[in-house]
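Figure 2 data, in text form.
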Amino acid sequence: MLEAPLPYEVDGKAFEGLLVRPEASDTPKAAVAVCHAWGGRDGFSEGMARRLAAEGYLACALDAYGAGVRGTTPEENQALMAPLVADRAALFRRLTAGLEALRAQPDCDHAVAAIGYCFGGLCVLDLARGGAGLRGVVSFHGLLHAPDQPLGAGDDASILVLNGHDDPMVPPSAVLAFAEEMTLAKRDWQLHDYGGALHAFTVPEANAPEAGVAYHRKADRRSWASATAFLREVLTPEG
């Protein structure tokens, strides 16, 4: 497994992803981008990129905040995330710039997908909403609400949402609104609702059930199995 920084620039600001290759090879590979949670590109999103590389993909942990910009407390994380949730067009520009840097790699196949966690789940759904040319996106315990203004024409990217049924950040009304949005747009979408799972159910360190945040072993295992099956479907020639 080989790792290298992936620099790119948006609106005059420097960003840096982490590119992970399964091996040294010029053979084009299907690629998967990973969108981070509210704290910025961190060990968790980088670990997911390594996990995807182990599955044989060219993987990249994207950076939505800027090179070296990370939150270390909930307050800092919120301060970093909130302006981008409020300005989804600016967020979309940052995400698509990262995708362009990934696609520019000589060993990147034309088949590209994206996965995201929490805030990153919102990111990948916006990539599908705005028409970023992806084969598919997977949102793990992500925020589902649509932007106030359209991000683009959309495309035919398949969509998989993996949601904790008891997540207070995604109430049933939000799930219903998302389903109506996707149905009206005639998207290829599916949503798996995990009973008893709270927000951040894939994060082993999450342990604040009083705040609606907790790891859920079964939902973690089942969601990864669903995500990898989905990626195989959308990223293979037969998919």
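Caption note: The chain has one domain: 2-235.
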